[in-house]
Every structure is written in structure tokens, then in C-alpha cells.
From TrEMBL:
Subcellular localization(s) per the UniProt record: Cytoplasm
GO cellular component terms, A-Z: ribosome
Subunit: Interacts with 100S ribosomes.
Function description: Required for dimerization of active 70S ribosomes into 100S ribosomes in stationary phase; 100S ribosomes are translationally inactive and sometimes present during exponential growth.
UniProt KW Ribonucleoprotein keyword: yes
Protein name: Ribosome hibernation promoting factor
Primary site of residence: cytoplasm
Domain Sigma 54 modulation/S30EA ribosomal protein C-terminal per the UniProt entry, residue ranges: 130-183
Species this protein is from: Thalassobacter stenotrophicus DSM 16310
InterPro entries for this protein: HPF/YfiA_ribosome-assoc, HPF_long/plastid, RHF-like, RHF/RaiA, Ribosom_S30AE_C, Ribosom_S30AE_C_sf
Pfam families registered for this protein in UniProt: Ribosom_S30AE_C, Ribosomal_S30AE
């Protein structure tokens, strides 16, 4: 597994890097069979250290965790505990579905745009209904089952996930509802 351990405006010593590699490697090895790479970023927020970690698995799924504490090692340890909990749940769900993904998740390219927001106190009507594009990026849309999509959304801590449904190949969306449940949008295909 490749590690990328860095700090945002703080120096990360070799002792901390070694600690992160050993601890995170042990956690990931315990619950995930084929991790590809890990990204760990330390930063400082006032008097606390913040640790953000992302682990990419060969199946295409991604686990993310974030924690903060007054000491940098404690921040990483808390982040590691959260990562371990996510990976344990991931592995349990795979067993519950009686399915291990043999092939990596297929990814297809798509354009992603960031649109300028309208000011809430702006009383003027916009001249056009065409939104102002602030940024344009490339994103990947995974090909997953609905259960895997829900699991990926929860692992990433995202409110919504767009995916190709493996069952019929169309674009689907899963999202976190306000009542705590998960919603699933599956458009009907026109035949």
C-alpha cells in the first residue's frame, strides 16, 4: 500500500510517519484485503490538531475518517478508530450480502461543475436563467449495486452518490434523507 502523509502548514516528523504507517497498515490489513493507497493529512485548527485520512481499496470503494484532538498522536489515533469502525462495517456488509467483488469497480468519466450561488438577500431578478459556472472538473461515476452504493455513500460520509446501476446500467442516485433513511432514485427506462 502506498502512503502519502503530509501536514498543512505544520511539519510532520519521521516518527509520526512511521507510527501512521504501522497503525493504519494494521487496521487496513485486518479488514480490507487489497488496499491500494492511503492519504493522511494533518492540520491545525486553533489549539487542536486535525487528522483526515482516506483509504482507497482495489474494489474502487473509498473509506474516509476525520478526527481532532489537542495532541497530534491522539488526533491520529481517534481517526484510526473511526477508520477501523468503517472498514469493519464494510467487511460485515460484504459478508451479509454473501458477495465478494472479484473485479474492480468500473468507473466512467463525467463532467462536474460548480455553479455560483444566488445571494439570499439579492432582490434583483437575474437577467438569465443560465447559471454562472465557477469551476469545471472531471469526476468518476462508479458502476455499483444499490447496496454497494449505499455503503460507499456512508463510507465517504457524503450526502448523495450518483452511480451506474450494475443491474441495468442506467444512472441512479442514493441520498441521505432528513429523517435519517436513505432515498434511492431509479429512473424508468423508456422502451
Amino acid at each position: 500500500m502506498r502512503y502519502q502523509i503530509s501536514g498543512k502548514q505544520i511539519d510532520i516528523g519521521s516518527a509520526l510517519q512511521t507510527h501512521v504507517e504501522q497503525e493504519l497498515g494494521g487496521i487496513v490489513q485486518k479488514y480490507a484485503e487489497r488496499p491500494t493507497d492511503a492519504l493522511v493529512v494533518f492540520s491545525r485548527n486553533a489549539h487542536e490538531y486535525v487528522c483526515e485520512s482516506t483509504v482507497h481499496l482495489s474494489t474502487g470503494l473509498t473509506a474516509q475518517a476525520k478526527a481532532h484532538a489537542t495532541e497530534i498522536y491522539a488526533a491520529f489515533d481517534s481517526c484510526g478508530e473511526k477508520m477501523e469502525k468503517q472498514l469493519r462495517r464494510y467487511k460485515r456488509r460484504l459478508k451479509d450480502h454473501h458477495r465478494e467483488r472479484a473485479q474492480p469497480v468500473e468507473l466512467s468519466g463525467a463532467a462536474s461543475y460548480i455553479l455560483a450561488s444566488q445571494e439570499a438577500n439579492d432582490e434583483d431578478e437575474p437577467e438569465t436563467l443560465t447559471p454562472l459556472i465557477v469551476a469545471e472538473m472531471e469526476t468518476k461515476i462508479p458502476s455499483l449495486s444499490v447496496g454497494e452504493a449505499v455503503m460507499q455513500m456512508e463510507l465517504a460520509g457524503a450526502p448523495v452518490l450518483v452511480f451506474h446501476n450494475e443491474k441495468h446500467g442506467s444512472i441512479n442516485v442514493v441520498y441521505r434523507r432528513e429523517d435519517g433513511n436513505v432515498g434511492w432514485v431509479d429512473p424508468k427506462s423508456e422502451s
